């Protein structure tokens, strides 16, 4: 009787040990792989940011206009929580502000259901500097420009524009907001976009971009657009027109970062030999599968937003998810 009992316990222990080992292996795979097989860092359980006291902070968010659905509200709520500590100077939107057909006028109900009633907490009632995405071109893109005339925080003064912000007494940052949908050839062939993209003079925009970059003397230079120059996501990926038009200018005039959306994920890319960091932050609402290629440093399919913190000569980037976890961080020093 004792021998049988011993055999049973030993056999049971072996089963339990096997199950435990299997669970460890599965956990390891799930923690270290995303949907496309790229590495994902361990998420921090501590959501407290170690921001410097006098840092200059701002948020970026993209592809967010879903009437509160598709994780938009969850991202907005976490932005509000992070804003309590970070106190952002402003918020940048990298486009696709209103899914899926843009807005028709400054009185379109989507202004309330997708913007005003979602980002309504005190920390988010700051200036917003948007660019236009392809879905914004399905509606009336000029209505988003005109909304700046009646809104106290929507600051899209034109389809493309530039601003300068003082980081501190000795450091300034140049922000260049581009209009990328008319630069992408496919939209001229699609009826839902063709009528609006043709209203933009792309040659004039490119002359403007070159002139602004050539005359920028600020310590930090940021360019913002909706479409990626580089992206490893299977949905859209690289934008060949922007590789041809943007990349040579960025390299020549020492652009520090290019921020964009369009692909609904979080990515950091940097081509070999490039000094420009390419950031995709398009997961302010719906997310899609991500990927990795030879330019990838990080990629993750998760809803969230980006925080940039600048202190003197150092910039720190944080990707933050809806739980407030810092899923990725990187630092760049001048």
- Beta percentage is 15-25%
Helix content: 25-40%
* String of helices and strands: HEHEHEHEEHHEHHEEEEEEE
| CATH topology label of the largest domain | Purple Acid Phosphatase, chain A, domain 2
List the total number of helices.
8
- Please tell me how large the radius of gyration is: 22 Å
Q: Ends: how far apart?
A: 76 Å
CATH architecture of the largest domain: 4-Layer Sandwich
Strand order in the sheet with the most strands:
4-5-6-7-9-8-10
Question: What is the CATH superfamily label of the largest domain?
Answer: Metallo-dependent phosphatases
Report on this structure.
The N and C termini lie far apart (76 Å). This protein is an alpha/beta fold and 334 residues long. The protein folds into 2 domains: 1-32; 56-333, Metallo-dependent phosphatases (Purple Acid Phosphatase, chain A, domain 2), CATH 3.60.21. A hairpin with a 5-residue loop joins strand 4 and strand 5. Helices cover 27% and strands 22% of the residues. It has 8 helices and 13 strands. The longest helix is centred in the first third of the chain and has 31 residues, at 2-32. It has helices spanning 2-32, 72-86, 110-116, 141-146, 191-197, 202-214, 240-245, 247-252; strands spanning 56-61, 90-93, 127-130, 161-166, 172-177, 220-224, 257-260, 266-269, 277-281, 296-300, 304-311, 314-321, 326-333. The strands form 2 sheets. It has a 7-stranded mixed beta sheet with strand order 4-5-6-7-9-8-10, with helices on one face.
């Amino acid at each position: 009787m004792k021998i049988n009992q011993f055999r049973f316990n030993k056999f049971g222990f072996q089963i339990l040990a096997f199950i435990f080992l299997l669970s460890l292996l599965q956990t390891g795979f799930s923690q270290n792989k995303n949907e496309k097989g790229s590495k994902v860092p361990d998420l921090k359980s501590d959501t407290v940011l170690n921001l410097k006291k006098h840092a200059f902070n701002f948020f970026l968010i993209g592809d967010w206009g879903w009437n509160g659905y598709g994780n938009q509200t969850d991202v907005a709520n976490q932005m509000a929580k992070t804003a309590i500590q970070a106190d952002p100077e402003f918020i940048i939107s990298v486009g696709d502000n209103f899914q899926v057909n843009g807005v028709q006028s400054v009185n379109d109900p989507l202004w309330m259901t997708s913007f005003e009633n979602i980002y309504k907490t005190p920390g988010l009632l700051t200036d917003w500097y948007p660019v236009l995405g392809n879905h914004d071109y399905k509606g009336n893109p000029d209505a988003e420009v005109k909304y700046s005339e009646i809104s106290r925080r929507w600051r899209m003064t034109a389809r493309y524009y530039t601003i300068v912000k003082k980081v501190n007494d000795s450091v300034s940052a140049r922000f260049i907001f581009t209009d990328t949908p008319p630069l992408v050839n496919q939209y001229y062939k699609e009826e839902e976009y063709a009528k609006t993209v043709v209203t933009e003079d792309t040659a004039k925009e490119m002359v403007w971009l070159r002139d602004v970059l050539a005359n920028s003397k600020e310590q930090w230079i940021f360019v913002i657009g909706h479409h990626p120059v580089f992206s490893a996501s299977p949905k859209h990926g690289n934008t060949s027109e922007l590789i041809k038009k943007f990349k040579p200018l960025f390299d020549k005039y020492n652009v520090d970062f290019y921020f964009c959306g369009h692909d609904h994920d979080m990515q950091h890319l940097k081509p070999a030999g490039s000094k420009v960091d390419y950031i995709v932050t398009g997961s302010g609402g719906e997310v899609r599968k991500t990927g990795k290629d030879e330019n990838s440093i990080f990629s993750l399919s998760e809803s969230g937003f980006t925080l940039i913190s600048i202190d003197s000569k150092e910039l720190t980037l944080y990707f933050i998810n809806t739980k407030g976890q810092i899923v990725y961080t990187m630092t760049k020093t001048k």
